[in-house]
Design brief:
Layout (H helix, E strand, L loop, with lengths): L4 H7 L7 H4 L13 E5 L5 E4 L1 H7 L3 H4 L11 H18 L1 E10 L5 E10 L5 E7 L1 H31 L1 E7 L4 E4 L1 H6 L11 H4 L5 H12 L8 E8 L5 E13 L2 E11 L1 H15 L9 H13 L4 E8 L2 H8 L1 H17 L6 E6 L2 E7 L3 H17 L13 E8 L6 H17 L3 E4 L2 H22 L3 E10 L5 E11 L5 E2 L1 H4 L6 H19 L27 E4 L2 H4 L4 H12 L6 E5 L9 H14 L2 E7 L6 H6 L4 E4 L1 H5 L7 H15 L2 E5 L4 H10 L3 E3 L32
Parallel strand pairs: 14-15, 17-19, 19-20, 20-21, 21-22, 22-23, 23-24
Antiparallel strand pairs: 1-2, 1-5, 3-4, 4-5, 6-7, 6-10, 8-9, 9-10, 11-13, 11-14, 12-13, 16-17, 16-24, 17-18
Helix pairs in contact: 12-13, 16-18, 20-21
């Protein structure tokens, strides 16, 4: 390494070529100056250089002074820049001021310098080079900070656009409003400085809110808490928007210097909320309230304690309309119906589509009874007008259940249930409009008690079966028995179907009872013994013998059980588990099951049962819906004639020709005939003469229980006494 020029100055004699001598023109301070100093002659050669410059370039003064020109110290790019640009500029202007130039340093890198130069009187030049690395780093850092700030500003603008939010600031002293571009865009204004707060407030639609905000911001010191509110605005082009405005005061030196905040465009969010609300509360087909919203509104209305009229509406036979016109036109009809119903309500009324073709109307009224009946009449009249969508081809009828608050129920659930029950009763009665009161309410109460009676009896195993014998009219021989259900109450009294017949209208109750009766019959058929049935005049004994003496047992099955898809399989499984032959069972079915959309499935089930040996009889023939095609096509074995024809055989001479025609028809079709309700020998003789094969009735024997065992408390004393009114 060459010796340090500075240390050489202190230990050696002055050398004409040493830096300190070479820089005498600069004065003594040149040696310690933090900058590089150069003098060039007119040809551009270096005349002198201070120690700082020599240290920068890593060369001794002897290699530089008088031997190199400045271009020889520079990099190729620096040399080109010096000779083609800086030298001409120096000659032209006589000076250079802080021109950037890079020198190769002792480490093999580049040292960035700022060069200032002056021409000398001898035609040369004097140069001062200041190290610019720190400044360059500072400038780069500053450039990076500027770029980062620009990037952040760009990010913020993107966030504002995505979040639909803009920032704003207001100077109360100068009434100067500033805001981001997005803030002005939300207000529908061109970005830039604004005159004052009115630029923002004038956009608000609500005049009271505008005045409230102006008053509040005029005294910003009162804003102890941030202000957060929603408002509607109108942009200069007339567009309506919903915004959320937030602001808070910025305090300094005990006063509010600025009020700053954000404004958010919540138009889309508001629309989304409204859309979600509609989805949750409105029926998407008719636009009326849905079931959920109706229940909520009913609760709120009842909480208000004002009288209300409630009307539940069920469109009759709308399924047939759907089938005839198709789902799309049926939906259009429901829309028209919904519009008509909503149009019947005065201000304050509420209309809803609950489900399918069931609607509800709710109306506050001082006289809710009169209002409900008036609405019912108006609904009937509105539906009687042909629907436009149907091309005038469809007029509708409706069943309506009415209820009034508070008379029919103070709780919303109770009020709705009362109207629902009224609707069910009206539909059961064939249509119309009514309250659940008086005789109708008594019928509902009786039905409830009947259903409870049957359910409790099934649950507590108080279902029993009594048997009435059937005899062949030709020779008086036994022809099996009919199973007749009885219920023993907890006091040991017995009742028959006449006491709880309404319970059989309930599908679940009827199927429970059918299952309980079948279990009893199968258990009785499994009992050992060979007792025989009663003969004519012998039906008053204490009880029948048990077991197989029952012969073939006829069991009545409700249409609710028969409509089960798996009824045939269920019955055959039950027979197999009990070990009872299918030939010992005869099913008596009512004619109403034949008028059903599932008739093909029923026919298939009956055919399967008959193939297994079960006999199928059509019960109460003559008063139902069976047609000749049913007699021809259904897999049945016989007809059981409705007993009103038999009971009136002697009193009305027109019954005999009817019965004779039925017998002839049955014989022609290969069907058996059974007459029930035979109470005298004379009637039995008449039936025999008409050609009937089998008969049953009090003349041959009353229904009796099996003698043993009877596992209820009354069994020890023989047959339980009949309650008056027990009848089959």
């Amino acid at each position: 390494m060459p010796p340090n020029p500075l240390s050489a100055r202190r230990t050696q004699e002055p050398d004409p070529t040493a830096p300190d001598s070479a820089c005498a023109a600069y004065g003594p301070a040149a040696l310690t100056a933090p900058c590089g100093l150069l003098r060039l002659d007119a040809a551009g050669r270096i005349e002198s250089a201070n120690a700082t410059l020599c240290d920068w370039i890593g060369r001794p003064a002897a290699e530089v002074i008088g031997r190199l020109d400045l271009a020889g110290l520079l990099s190729p790019a620096g040399r080109l820049f010096w000779t083609t640009h800086l030298v001409p500029q120096l000659r032209l202007n006589g000076r250079l001021d802080e021109v950037s130039l890079s020198l190769p340093d002792r480490e093999g890198g580049l040292r960035r310098c700022l060069v200032s130069a002056r021409q000398t009187e001898a035609g040369g030049s004097a140069l001062a080079l200041f190290e610019a690395e720190r400044r360059h780093v500072f400038e780069e850092d500053q450039a990076r900070e500027v770029a980062l700030a620009q990037t952040r500003a760009h990010w913020l603008a993107q966030i504002e656009r995505m979040a639909e939010v803009g920032a704003w600031s207001w100077d109360p002293a100068q009434d100067r409003l500033q805001g981001s571009d997005r803030m002005f865009d939300i207000l529908g204004l061109r970005p830039g400085p604004a005159d004052g707060l009115d630029t923002l407030l004038d956009r608000l639609i609500s005049e009271p809110l505008r005045g409230q905000l102006r008053t509040c911001l005029a005294t910003p010191e009162t804003l102890r808490q941030p202000l957060d509110l929603e408002a509607g605005i109108r942009t200069p082009d007339g567009a309506l928007r919903q915004i959320r405005l937030f602001c808070e005061p910025l305090w300094a030196r005990g006063r509010v210097e600025r009020v700053q905040g954000v404004v958010c465009d919540i138009t889309r969010a508001q629309e989304d909320r409204q859309r979600l609300w509609r989805m949750a509360h409105l029926d998407d087909l008719t636009g009326l309230a849905n079931r959920h919203y109706f229940r909520s509104h009913l609760r709120a209305a009842c909480a208000g304690a004002e009288p209300l009229a409630l009307v539940l509406i069920d469109i009759e036979d709308f399924g047939a309309v759907n089938h005839r016109f198709g789902a799309d036109r049926a939906d259009a009809m429901l829309q028209e119906i919904g519009g008509r119903l909503a149009g019947l309500l005065p201000e304050g009324g509420f209309a809803a589509r609950l489900v399918g073709d069931e609607f509800a109307l709710l109306l506050p009224a001082t006289d809710p009874d009169a209002a409900a009946r008036g609405l019912g009449a108006a609904v009937a009249a509105a539906l009687d007008v042909p629907l436009a969508v149907s091309g005038g081809a469809v007029r509708l009828r409706a069943a309506m259940g009415l209820a009034a608050f508070p008379e029919d129920g103070r709780a919303p659930e109770a009020l709705f249930a009362r109207a629902k029950e009224a609707l069910s009763e009206v539909k059961r009665a064939g249509g119309g409009v009514d309250f659940l009161r008086g005789a109708m309410l008594a019928r509902v109460g009786a039905r409830r008690r009947a259903i409870a009676c049957v359910r409790d009896a099934v649950q507590e195993d108080r279902i029993r079966v009594w048997y009435q014998p059937k005899l062949r009219l030709a020779d008086g021989a036994p022809d099996g028995h009919e199973a007749l259900v009885r219920i023993f109450d907890r006091a040991g009294q017995v009742s028959g179907p006449a006491d709880w017949a309404e319970a059989l209208e309930d599908p679940e109750c009827a199927t429970l009872l059918d299952a309980a009766v079948l279990r009893r019959v199968l258990a009785d058929l499994r009992r050992p013994g060979s007792g025989c049935g009663a003969g004519p005049g012998q039906g008053q004994g204490p009880g029948l013998g048990s077991g197989h003496g029952l012969g073939r047992v006829a069991v009545n099955v409700s249409e609710h059980s028969l409509r089960r898809v798996d009824f045939a399989a269920y019955l055959l499984r039950a027979l197999a588990r009990a070990g009872v032959s299918p030939a010992q069972i005869e099913l008596e079915i009512v004619e109403t099951v034949l008028v059903d959309q599932r008739t093909p499935e029923l026919v298939a089930g009956f055919a399967r049962l008959r193939a297994a040996g079960v006999r199928i009889m059509l019960d109460d023939f003559g008063t139902g819906f069976a047609s000749l095609s049913h007699l021809r096509d259904l897999p049945i074995d016989g007809l059981k004639i409705e007993k009103s024809f038999v009971l009136g055989l002697q009193a009305d001479p027109r019954n005999a020709p009817i019965l004779r025609a039925i017998v002839m028809l049955a014989q022609a079709l290969g069907l058996r005939t059974v007459a029930e309700g035979v109470e005298s020998a004379e009637v039995a003789d008449l039936l025999r003469g008409l050609g009937f094969e089998t008969a049953q009735g009090y003349h041959f024997g009353r229904p009796q229980p099996l003698r043993e065992p009877l596992p209820d408390p009354v069994a020890e004393g023989g047959a339980a006494p009949l309650r008056q009114g027990v009848s089959d």
